[in-house]
Design brief:
Chain lengths: 123, 327
């Protein structure tokens, strides 16, 4: 965890350089791309800190929802099969709770400024 | 590459009898992850002093579900003749131009960056007009006679959905929210097909040039097809195109009620259920596309394209919110 925090902080330093120091020196397309690069690095920094925990929570929820064991990819494939067979749909509260929690965990890493994410989290 | 491109543009213009001494500036524009767009300055008097080049890099086929740039230029000109604002097409490229597939058009002044369209000071009056103009322009373009257009793919709701499903299956990356969305869409395919008409296919904030009077140009006919006009309305409401203004479903700048009034006043026939179907379809389409773009961006080392892969999940939360049963 200590190591991850350090990696995340270093990524943050590079991101800060791109956004605050390099970008003002650039024009047009490259100024825009410096911002894109900075935002991408910020999400990778969050991934480093909380990506694994989010995956563990998703895996635990999948086992609970499906009542079977397997790795996370196998269980997601199984969930897709049950959805495609019509065994689960949007009227299943358990399914919707799982999908919402998993999606919000990923958004917290990838797009925490997305307005629908903020609404769902009550921010 | 830039100097060479400038020379080729100059030759292309001269070949069409346009009296231009020199190209004095070339700038690759931000945006348009799909194709190259360049702003070109020449020594000629207005309106030839500033041109836009839109081209597909050499040797590349139109992306699946898209039409050639030559066809796009032709549709844009036809729509413009019916009153849909757009740039003037100056030249459609051919093989002897050695510039690839594409066209040169006049440069229309205004803002295209979506967040600036929604926030920039000085555009307040324009923003108030956008929803009405969207209603009017969409009604107009949906009424363009199909016979006056180049041959376009005719695609039903069910075919559109099946094509997207194939695209998703080819990715072999199961995402339960997407599977649920396909299931939902299959259960909500509109019962009746409307009279087919010209559909823009990518009518949204980002493909509109906005000046102080509102919409100055409708751009990017890459995904035009013949089908259900409500596709364009649903697409305009997709959450990713609201840019944070999620309580204003129409493009992040207007209410659906105001849109309907303008659309019907201009002769359009609005349908709420089909619009909701196409909004859900639109979110899923963009979501599946972001997965392809993430792969393409990594393959081609294109940063902007690769970064779009971090936007897949936002489409999942929008799908969940749309499908979630209301108490």
């Amino acid at each position: 965890m200590n190591n991850r925090s350090k990696i995340s902080e270093l990524i943050g330093v590079v991101s800060h350089y791109l956004k605050e120091e390099l970008r003002p020196e650039l024009d047009g397309r490259h100024a825009f791309l410096a911002l894109v690069a900075s935002n991408l690095l910020d999400s990778l920094a969050r991934e480093t800190v909380s990506g694994d925990e989010a995956a563990l929570r998703e895996h635990a929820r999948l086992r609970q929802l499906l009542g079977v064991d397997g790795d996370i990819d196998e269980l997601n494939a199984e969930l897709c099969r049950r959805i495609n067979r019509g065994e689960l749909n949007e009227n299943s509260q358990d399914l919707m709770a799982h999908l919402t929690a998993t999606t919000l965990d990923r958004l917290a890493i990838e797009q925490p400024a997305y307005e629908a994410f903020r609404r769902e989290r009550g921010l | 590459m830039k100097a060479e491109l400038g020379k080729q543009v100059l030759s292309a213009l001269r070949r069409r009898g346009l009296d231009i001494d020199n190209v004095c500036g070339m700038q690759r524009l931000t945006g348009g992850a799909m194709q190259e767009t360049w702003r070109i300055e020449t020594t000629a008097p207005p309106p030839l002093d500033r041109l836009i080049l839109r081209r597909a890099p050499l040797n590349s086929e139109p992306r699946l579900g898209t039409i050639s740039l030559a066809a796009q230029a032709s549709i844009s000109e036809t729509a413009r003749s019916h009153g849909v604002p757009g740039p003037e097409v100056i030249a459609v490229l051919n093989d002897s131009d050695k510039l690839g597939d594409g066209f040169l058009m006049s440069c229309v002044d205004g803002e295209t960056v979506p967040r600036r369209v929604l926030k920039k000071p000085g555009l307040e009056r324009a923003r108030a007009k956008l929803v009405g103009q969207c209603g009017r322009h969409l009604a107009t373009l949906h009424d363009v006679p199909i016979s006056s257009l180049p041959v376009l793919p005719r695609i039903s709701a069910r075919e559109k959905l099946e094509n997207l499903h194939d695209q998703y299956r080819r990715q072999q990356r199961p995402r339960p929210v997407f599977d649920l969305a396909f299931s939902w869409l299959q259960r909500h395919v509109p019962a009746s097909e409307p009279d087919p008409c010209l559909v823009h296919g990518d009518f949204r904030n980002g493909n509109l040039i906005v000046d102080e009077n509102g919409i100055a140009a409708v751009l990017d006919w890459e995904r035009a097809f013949i089908g259900d006009p409500m596709f364009d309305v649903g697409w305009l409401c997709v959450g990713s195109w609201r840019f944070g203004e999620i309580d204003l479903p129409v493009g992040g700048f207007g209410s659906l009620a105001d849109f309907i009034t303008a659309y019907e006043d201009a002769g359009g026939k609005f349908d709420a259920a089909r619009t909701r179907f196409w909004e859900a379809y639109g979110i899923l389409d963009w979501g599946v596309t972001t997965v392809d773009l993430a792969i393409e961006g990594r393959d081609t080392q294109a940063l902007e394209t690769a970064a779009i892969g971090r936007r897949t999940t936002e489409t999942e939360i929008d799908l969940i919110r749309l499908m979630r049963p209301h108490e």
